[in-house]
Design brief:
Elements (H helix, E strand, L loop, with lengths): L1 H11 L2 H15 L12 H10 L5 H14 L3 H5 L3 H8 L5 H18 L8 H6 L5 H10 L10 H9 L8 H11 L7 H12 L28
Helix pairs in contact: 2-12, 3-9, 6-7, 10-12
Length: 226
């Protein structure tokens, strides 16, 4: 197995030479790749990303379709009993933890940021319930990507493409930011996520349909016969 992987990587070339062609081909294949969450302003973006933990974007959008009609300002999340907020976000799972994080975040937005979602990455990380992945998503969608979002699709495809051997998301991001051109930091995760959903399935990747197969992906079944 190791010899096959080594041989496949030799055939497709070094990762630094492949990264731009990979991005270009994925961008052509998935020209509609973008964040799947529905939002209209920074506050809705932040809430949507916070609610997306351990659930699907489709499920979050279903919940926020009515949630954002009721909760329009940070104050609104604090104006109702905790139990009511929990009921309103129940379908996203882990509703107690998420309600606590939301209320803590809204309190900090009001007391320290005049009710606005801060621009600085470091300030986003200070918000209760906001870890690096959430801060990365919010920053990227606001046009100020300071890193690369690493979710399950990004982790899997980055490994399959030979861009990292790491398992830890922070270490994977560290490898990717050294490799991916900064101008592509925001769209790179979307391209991998959409490719992972549409073609590069976790269990049954459809290599015969993949624009990266054979000459750019060391994990492709087709690369073995090039």
């Amino acid at each position: 197995m190791r010899s096959y992987v080594r041989e496949a990587r030799r055939k497709v070339g070094p990762k630094k030479a492949r990264i731009v062609p990979v991005i270009e081909r994925l961008a052509e294949e998935h020209s509609d790749a973008q964040i799947a969450l529905t939002f209209e302003n920074p506050l809705e973006l932040l809430v949507s990303v916070m609610l997306s933990a351990q659930t699907t974007d489709v499920n979050v959008n279903r919940v926020t379709a009515t949630l954002f009609q009721k909760y329009r300002r940070p104050e609104d999340y604090l104006a109702v009993p905790v139990a009511e907020l929990e009921r309103d976000i129940f379908a996203t799972g882990f509703y107690r933890q998420k309600a606590k994080a939301l209320r803590g975040t809204m309190t900090m937005l009001i007391t320290e940021y005049d009710g606005d979602v801060p621009e600085r990455f470091e300030d986003l990380l200070r918000l209760p319930g906001v870890a690096r992945k959430t801060a990365n998503v919010v920053s990227a969608e606001r046009g100020n990507a300071v890193g690369i979002v690493v979710d399950t699709h990004v982790r899997r495809l980055s490994q399959r493409l030979g861009f990292t051997r790491q398992e830890d998301p922070v270490k994977i991001e560290r490898d990717l930011v050294k490799l991916v051109p900064r101008a592509d930091w925001a769209r790179f995760p979307h391209l991998l996520i959409w490719h992972g959903r549409r073609i590069c399935d976790a269990r049954r990747p459809r290599c015969e349909e993949c624009p990266l197969a054979a000459d750019l992906c060391p994990s492709s079944r087709l690369s073995a016969v090039v």
